[in-house]
Amino acid sequence: MQVSARDDVTRKIVPFKSIRKNVDLHIMERIYEEIKTPYKYGIILKGDNNSKVDCPSVFRFGDKWYMMYIIFDGSGYETAIAQSNDLIIWKPVGKILRFQPGRWDGMQAAGYIALQDFLWGGSYRLQKYKDKYWLSYIGGALKGYETDPLSIGIARTNNPTKPIEWNRLKEPVLSRDQSDVRDFEKLTQYKSNIIYDKNKTLGYPFVMFYNGKPNKSFERIGMAVSQDMTHWLRYGKTPVIDNGKGISGDPQITRIDNVWVMFYFGAFWKPKAFDTFACSYDLVHWTKWTGPDLVAPSEPWDQQYAHKPWVIKHEGIVYHFYCAVGDQGRAIALATSKDIRHLKR
């Protein structure tokens, strides 16, 4: 029996259990030196027919790389995949979440990979659960650009590399209509990242980070947990990343040595939009980096926004994929830790 997001019989907020421990500045500086990407390669993926592309998430499957990304054509969000041999040249493959009018998510379905190997410099392969590959997505019924309200849904498939529709759950797993919705997410939930924590650091194998917003306010990042990927409980009564104004959003979790690292973007609490990070020992209490941005507007193609990170390390090079907004519209760009611009096609 599929439990609706509106069914509040078993809803509760799981309380924070750990005591705050800050990450020392010298550790934060070491992490920054490891992940920084000062070399901007440029735009690597653009939309067709004046469509906008956004929110890259990159994974390994077989001997190739794949990117899940979202497309906005003026009506709403759909989700597609692209393929690459080298993380630089990308070829679109096709859509995996399409418009389905009449559903709760009929006009908005923006997907993001889940259950990826989160180890820094690891395999970056997607892990199976119940013999399926999984994603989370933001969904909505109304046309337009991120038209409120948006909720979080879950979908699964047998093969994440094929341009075939993923099987979505019938109802959202997190929604503003639930009785336990927290103040910071009372209007809309946005992009989420789900990790498969087999050590159950928080007592649950599946941990989700996502940003949300209330009416007429700013976006902050909170948490949810699950035992089975289909029934989710909010974790903690407050957000775990809060910069006081503007936007903190689009988290991606990785693990470097014994430190959890969250890449995320900020907007409007400093000029424009940019990517930064925070560190944690327990997934709950995060020390925010206050030094240089990982990427920020500097080039014609990202002069307005350089944001929404997906960061991996492969064969000694850090690849920082992000959404760039500038003279080429809204597209996906790449910055790296080493200068690879001589490889331009």
Write the layout of secondary structure elements.
Elements: E1 13-14, H1 25-35, E2 39-45, E3 52-61, E4 64-72, E5 77-84, E6 91-97, E7 108-113, E8 133-140, E9 151-157, E10 167-168, E11 188-196, E12 206-213, E13 220-226, E14 232-235, E15 247-256, E16 259-267, E17 273-280, E18 287-288, E19 305-314, E20 317-326, E21 329-336
Parallel strand pairs: 1-14
Antiparallel strand pairs: 2-21, 3-4, 4-5, 5-6, 7-8, 8-9, 9-10, 11-12, 12-13, 13-14, 15-16, 16-17, 17-18, 19-20, 20-21
Jot down its keywords.
single chain; 345 residues; mainly beta; Tachylectin-2, Chain A; five-stranded mixed sheet; four-stranded antiparallel sheet; 21 strands; globular
How would you describe what is shown here?
The chain is mostly beta strands and 345 residues long. The chain has a single domain, classed as Glycosyl hydrolase domain, family 43 (Tachylectin-2, Chain A, 5 Propeller), CATH 2.115.10.20. Helix content is 3%, strand content 44%. It is built from one helix and 21 strands. It has one helix at residues 25-35; strands at residues 13-14, 39-45, 52-61, 64-72, 77-84, 91-97, 108-113, 133-140, 151-157, 167-168, 188-196, 206-213, 220-226, 232-235, 247-256, 259-267, 273-280, 287-288, 305-314, 317-326, 329-336. The strands form five sheets. Strands 1-14-13-12-11 form a five-stranded mixed sheet, with no helix packed on it. It has a four-stranded antiparallel sheet with strand order 2-21-20-19, with no helix packed on it. A hairpin with a 6-residue loop joins strand 12 and strand 13 (220-226). The longest helix is centred in the N-terminal third of the chain and has 11 residues, at 25-35.
